[in-house]
Amino acid sequence: MNVQHPKAIIRLGTRASLLALRQAHWVKAQLECHFPEVEVNLVHIKTSGDKIKIPLFKVGGKGLFVKEIEEALLRGAVDLAVHSAKDLPAFIPEGLKLLAFPAREDARDVLVSASGRRWGELPTQGRVGTGSLRRQAQLLNLRPDLEIVPLRGNLNTRLKKLSALKLDALVLAAAGLRRLGWEERVVEYFEPEVMLPAIGQGALAIEGRVGDEQVQKLVAFLNHPPTQSAVAAERAFSRKLGGGCQVPIAAHARVETDRLTLNGLVAGLDGRRIIKGKVEGSSAKSEDLGRKLAEELLEKGAGEILHEVRKKE
Questions:
Q1: Per mean pLDDT, which of 151-160, 192-201, 240-249 is the most reliable?
Q2: How many structural domains compose the chain?
Q3: Are residues 80 and 59 in the same domain?
Q4: Fewer CB within 10 Å: C terminus or N terminus of the chain?
């Protein structure tokens, strides 16, 4: 942090995609409004995930969207980073810390279709685009007749592929469309009971360096404890299962007062076999609940599914 400037300068690392920049500008605006003596400068960082054109599950997963940003944090090139929580790897590098989780946006998945058709109206053997194994497995479980078309690219790129690839529909995260003001593209929302979201979906995560107390104090007001507890439970569930986007794992936690309810699943790639579970308990024990649910699914046979999926990587 440069305190020689008339204002204290905070360098905020972000990807340069339209959605990432919208999220980063929101954090910048919140900090500058709350602390008029602070100026936040955005530092655009191109990540491996931005450069790779093939599905992420084939090349190491969503951690590729944060690796270079975390490296910039560690070497002091930036002071803060803002990520989509679902892009975070299961383990945070030594020396870094997740400092705040702002209130979560809608965590659900949505259907966007070329003709305005709803889920139940999609044609037999319809072509549905998604880059997520989690979505693929759940879609095929619901509709084994569908043809799943793998997609890569930023949100606006994927929306363009709806017509370019002559797809019947896309399945996307509601949060991204809402943050960009594109809700009118949504034809239907999938409730978590139908399509369980990704770990951390809809949540933002603000990351900084361990020991940088000044920065930690600056962002503390952005933290939303129910969101923090929910994401902690989901991430603990994923870590216990050794998850990532290379395997179809999903979880969604809800917090009401001090009670947390966590639903999770592990699925085979073709969607034929899905193992689900649910736990409830104190939100103060969020990580314990995440691990507990993972252990319960492993006892039901989730380990066999994960072994089979990983053999195909």
A1: 192-201
A2: 3
A3: yes
A4: C
Q: Is 95 helix (H, G, I), strand (E, B) or coil?
A: coil
Q: Which residue type occupies 234?
A: E
pLDDT of residue 61: 52
- Is there a single domain that holds both residue 243 and residue 152? no
**pTM for the whole thing?**
0.90
Q: Which residue has the tokens 């790779």?
A: 52
The number of beta carbons lying within 10 Å of the beta carbon of residue 137 is 27
Residue 162 lies in a domain: yes
| pLDDT band, residue 54 (cuts 50/70/90) | very low
- Region 169-188 average pLDDT: 96
256 in the same domain as 213: no
Residues 133 and 151: their CA atoms lie apart, in Å, by 11
Query: For residue range 227-263, what is the model confidence (pLDDT) as tens digits?
Result: 999 999 999 999 999 876 578 999 999 999 999 999 9
Q: The CATH number of the domain where 306 resides is what? A: 3.30.160.40
- Are 8 and 151 found together in one domain? no
Catalytic residue status for 87 = yes
- Mean pLDDT for 95-105 is 97
Cα separation, 96 vs 212, whole angstroms:
10
CB 86 within 8 A of CB 69: no
> What are the φ/ψ torsions at residue 255 (nearest 5 degrees)?
-120, 125
CATH code at position 136:
3.40.190.10
Residue 309 burial (CB count, 10 A): 20
Strand partners, 110: 172, 189
Catalytic residue selected from 50, 79, 87, 270: 87
Identify whether 196 is part of a domain. no
Distance CA 52, CA 62 (A): 11
